[in-house]
Amino acid sequence: MTSPLTSRFPYAKGSDGARRLGYGADYNPEQWPREVWAEDVRLMREAGVNTVSLAIFSWARIQPTAGTWDFGWLDEIMDLLHAGGIGVDLATATASPPPWLTTAHPEILPVTASGETVSPGARQHWRPTSPVFREHALRLVRELATRYAAHPALVAWHVNNELGCHNVYDFSDDAATAFRTWLRRRYTTLDALNHAWGTAFWSQRYSDFDQILPPRLAASHPNPTQQLDFKRFSSDALKEHLTAEREVLRELTPDVPVTTNFMVMGGTKGMDYADWAGEVDFVANDHYVIPGPQDRDELSFSANLTSGIAGHRPWFLMEHSTSAVNWQPVNLAKTPGELARDSLLHVAHGADAVCFFQWRQSAAGAEKYHSAMVPHAGEDSELFRSVVELGQTLEALAPIAGSEREPARVAVLFDWDSWWTSEHDSHPTSRLDYHREALDWYSALLRLGIRADVVPAHRADLAAYDVVVAPVLHMVSRTLTKELTCYVEGGGHLVTTYFSGVVDENDHIWLGGYPGALRELLGIRIEEFGPLLDGDTVALDNNTTGSLWTDRITVEGPDVDVLAGYRTGAYANRPAVTRRTTGRGSAAYVSTRLGAEGLTALLPELLAPAGVSSELPDEARGLVETAVRRDADSRYLFLINRSDTPVPLPGVTGDVLIGPAVAGDGLVLPPREVAVLRQGAH
User: Fold this and answer.
1) Percent of the chain with pLDDT strictly greater than 90
2) Which of 76, 136, 234, 352 falls between 20 and 30 A from 477, CA-CA?
3) Closest CA relative to residue 460, chosen from 276, 587, 673, 312
4) Where are the beta strands (DSSP E) in 179-304?
5) Cβ(412)–Cβ(442) under 8 Å?
6) What is the pLDDT of residue 7?
7) DSSP helix/strand/coil, 425
């Protein structure tokens, strides 16, 4: 899994050829008078900043009117940054159209499912499929690329910004036209579309492509496959905008890598980033912690999934926060140590650049209460001192630049199609939360001290893993069925859950009993689902408690073991957790939501056939997270203290890059701190 430093990742080496990690922020000098700019560069150098993202929301400043351009200020700041040794990830500035454009062309504004036009006044007020917007956006991109192609500060291009954050679903006439074009490419004929959409139901059969609309506000539940295809189309429409800008940049600056910032975090599900990853020269991601009992689990999960999307190659943490954000109901400041720990957790999972939103905290505007590297209090602040300290830490970690994540023995599969379809309306329950179920399994693995990868279902090399966990793998094609079967028969151990294998790629039920496509592999048959009402639970005979869902399971075949049964509820005395041994592997099924706590109790039994257990001492499990990165010469062990107490780690050896010294019997990891040890050649 090792490879040389990628030539398309611009932060693996500095101008002197030495390894380095990227460090910096979104920089918005247009918000400040010129006398602040030189001070900014001085403070950046003090903090160890070596890269900034520039001009993200600068369209109105760069092009004040349809016929005028103002590059003077941008020329000046590009020169200042270069003189300060700071590279620029230059944005194409297309994220937020200027007022003159929306006034002249209101037809670029998005339309909601209920037919309301979204007004300007915030950001991302543009239709991904608008030909008028595309024309103006690409003109801007061409002007920027022509002007700065040879500028020595330019190290990468940043297309748009957080594509789809606020405009992923547009139901306008432009979208309808583009949707029909997309459907013609996908299905070719109306007969194929009518079959895929099941239009025999509710008299929905189409006799002309021009009759088809996006799933706008309807009298009842819209056609489910229409909903699914619109989600697929909407992700593709944004990807098409990304590639349109990218092609202009590659034409004019072929040697400058191009990226855009994904948002692999929380409930952001409209964009299929696993599908987008091949369109950028390196993967970049934004992540913000959502406060709650699994907040740091989610941070780790998302960083891990970003690495999976990137193929375990180095990626760029484009944005996260130094402290509080501004957009949550209550915006909590980070406690001491969390700024560094959050940043280094991303590095542990493959980030070779760590950046924040933003450099200097705004004095005006919607995000003025969002934290930054330089807070309202200025450089004489604990926050800025922490920023400087993190810069020093990242400098000490320069040897890991370009290294890749070492694969774990366990993988958690993540599938956008299953996410989209499992949460459709008109289902057995509206309470199902795909992301939460996947996160629960990952949380349980963290509690047990077991390293796991989070990987996109349709890009995963299953054979690389001893155990594959596929929560709510709702949509399973015939091809995926064969892949999973071959994996198990070849010696792999599959674990899946309720509402898996139920539909094919067109959201059609696999007939003959659930779990449909996986029925034979699992050796069970389910005639009827048993979703639970809010607050209802069922007891299992392994002392765990289920919620949300139950299944009426019938075991088919002598090679299926019942690992746990229902003790209470409508299906009392029937199987709840099963495992079928087949070939050299096994396939297990968990028919209820056990939550992270219940899964922590169950997982050791599910992992036992593969011989997977924690590499950590007992006293560190659940308190310390581990990750490993490798290059051609060394293995780098990351140890992250997730707790507020010191944790002893006896037996740990290696050369310390950061963290406490290793004593004769190992090390003691202080609260909320990270240690990185180089463990030599492999």
Assistant:
1) 93
2) 234
3) 312
4) 258-259, 261-262, 284-286
5) yes
6) 42
7) coil
* Res. 5: pLDDT tops 50: no
End-to-end CA distance of the chain: 12
The model's pTM: 0.97
Specify the residue for token string 């590659």: 250
Which of 374, 394, 369, 376 is closest to 384 using CA atoms?
Answer: 374
* Identified catalytic residue from 245, 319, 406, 673: 319
- Enumerate the H helices of 12-98 as residue ranges: 34-47, 59-62, 72-83
Q: Which residues pair with 678 in a beta bridge?
A: 636, 655
Domain-by-domain residue ranges, the chain? 410-610, 621-678
Three-state DSSP class for residue 141: helix
Helix extents (H) in 454-522: 478-489, 519-522
- Dihedral over Cα of 41, 46, 49, 53: its sign: negative
The per-residue b/e assignment along 590-607, b for 16 or more CB within 10 angstroms, e otherwise, is bbbbbbbebbbbbbeebb
CATH number of 621-678, picked from 2.40.160.20, 2.30.30.140, 2.60.40.1180, 2.60.120.260 = 2.60.40.1180
Catalytic residue among 35, 107, 143, 162: 162
Note whether 578 and 525 are within 8 A (CB): no
| 150-192 residue pLDDT tens | 999 999 999 999 999 999 999 999 999 999 999 999 999 999 9
What pLDDT was estimated at residue 4?
34
Tokens of 444: 């349980």
319 is catalytic: yes
Distance (Å, rounded) from C-alpha 45 to C-alpha 387? Answer: 12
Within 8 A by CB and 6+ apart from 113, the residues are 169, 171, 214, 215, 216, 217
Give the whole-angstrom CA distance, residue 497 versus residue 591.
6
Q: What's the Rg (C-alpha) of the chain?
A: 26
Nearest to 169 by CA among 217, 137, 121: 217
State the DSSP H helix or E strand holding residue 305, giving kind and residue range, or none if neither. helix 295-309
The string of pLDDT tens digits covering residues 527-562 is 999 999 999 999 999 999 999 999 999 999 889 999
Residue 445: half-sphere exposure toward Cβ, Cα within 13 Å: 28
35 is catalytic: no
Structural tokens at position 630: 């490798």
Structure-block tokens of residue 181: 């074009």
Cα separation, 235 vs 413, whole angstroms:
20
CA distance 350 to 628: 9
Residue 189 contacts by C-beta under 8 Å, 6 or more apart in sequence?
none
Q: Before 358, cis peptide (omega within 30)?
A: yes
Which whole-number Å values give the CA distances from 298 to 283, 293, 302, 479, in the listed order? 19, 10, 6, 30
Query: Which residues 6+ apart lie within 8 Å of 85 measured at CB?
Result: 15, 45, 50
Average pLDDT across the chain, whole number: 95
Burial of 636 (0-12, 13-18, 19+ CB in 10 A): buried
Say which residues have a Cβ less than 8 Å from residue 79's Cβ, sequence separation at least 6: 153
CATH class belonging to 410-610? alpha beta
Euclidean distance between CA atoms 474 and 506, whole angstroms: 12
**535 burial class (0-12, 13-18, 19+ CB within 10 angstroms)?**
exposed
Burial class (CB in 10 A: 0-12, 13-18, 19+), 207: exposed
Q: Which letter does DSSP use for residue 661 in this model?
A: P
Cβ-Cβ contacts under 8 Å for 250 (sequence gap 6 or more): 258
Mean pLDDT value of segment 195-203: 97
The token pair that represents 391 in the structure block:
């810069």
Region 78-106 average pLDDT? 98
pLDDT band for 209, please (50, 70, 90 cuts): very high
Q: Which of 556, 573, 562, 565 is nearest to 592 (CA)?
A: 565
